[in-house]
Amino acid sequence: MKQQALNRSVNRPSADKKLLLIFLLALSALILYMFVNVRFDNPKLFRYSMKIRSPKLAAMVVTAVAMGAASIVFQSIINNRIVTPCLLGMNSLYTLIHTAVYFFFGAGNIIVSNSNLFFAVDLVVMGITATFIYGYLFKKTKYNVLYVILVGTVLTSFFSSIQNTLVRVMDPNSYDSLLNSLIASFSNINTEIIIFSVMVLTALAFILRKELALLDVIGLGKEQAINLGIDYDRCIKRLLIGVTVCIAVATAMVGPISFIGLIIANLTRQLLKTYRHRQLILGSAMFGIIVLVGGQLIVEQVFTYSVPIGVIISTAGGVYFLYLLLANRRV
Description:
Layout: H1 2-35, H2 43-78, H3 90-105, H4 110-113, H5 115-140, H6 145-169, H7 172-182, H8 191-207, H9 209-213, H10 215-218, H11 222-227, H12 232-254, H13 260-272, H14 277-301, H15 309-330
Helix pairs in contact: 1-2, 1-14, 2-8, 2-12, 2-13, 2-14, 3-5, 3-6, 3-7, 5-12, 8-12, 13-14
């Protein structure tokens, strides 16, 4: 026990130093995005650049925090590092919601024209659906997390099938407009949506503060957590619903980004090599800022908006996922 305590005390400063390094990299990415190719000699152009870039930067930070925290918590619940919260079907549900709105109401309806209303519809439908399905199924499956993941995979296929059916018969003009909302993008971000998202995430963190504080113990496994006096099933249920709400917020804000959670969560675990979830969540959120801000910087400055950031992250995430599979296979 003394040796373990000594090892922990030795490893902790190392993790803290690495966390500081990630913070500096994230801060550098933020500064680069805000000031690269900005006309400092022209006050009007400078103010215009700040006005355009600030909402995008805020949206990327909020998305990184939501996806980073959700991914670390989800992997700890499942006890598997190659899983991603997208297995819960939120991306497919988001796609289905938007397709249904365009199909039944057209591209010029009030929901599409009002970004605040559309965001509220996304968040409410996704939140209620996730709370009902996963709360109900979690109880019905006797709190078996693997069954919940299986159901999430089935729901992903179910939502995608309905969405594909609607796309085949919908108006071509509506379909053209629909495609823009189904690709992850940080262009034309509504500031009010950012504020509302921050309020939702803050309230969620406050509601789940006790469960989040128990993640270090929950990570030891179900039997050990129960022996230490934790209501394991209740904690897992609340955390799982919290994960789905975080994914709903991030997806409703910028669109589906499939592999971002997988990338930032595993990079954080590989670098920090710690069991402390407070450090892991902070590190994952900052890694998310590096990936999203760096990717958006490449999109704007290198590809001049010709390639969406979602395409870059999905491509890199697919390659990284294959690497993780091969690496675990060797082990």
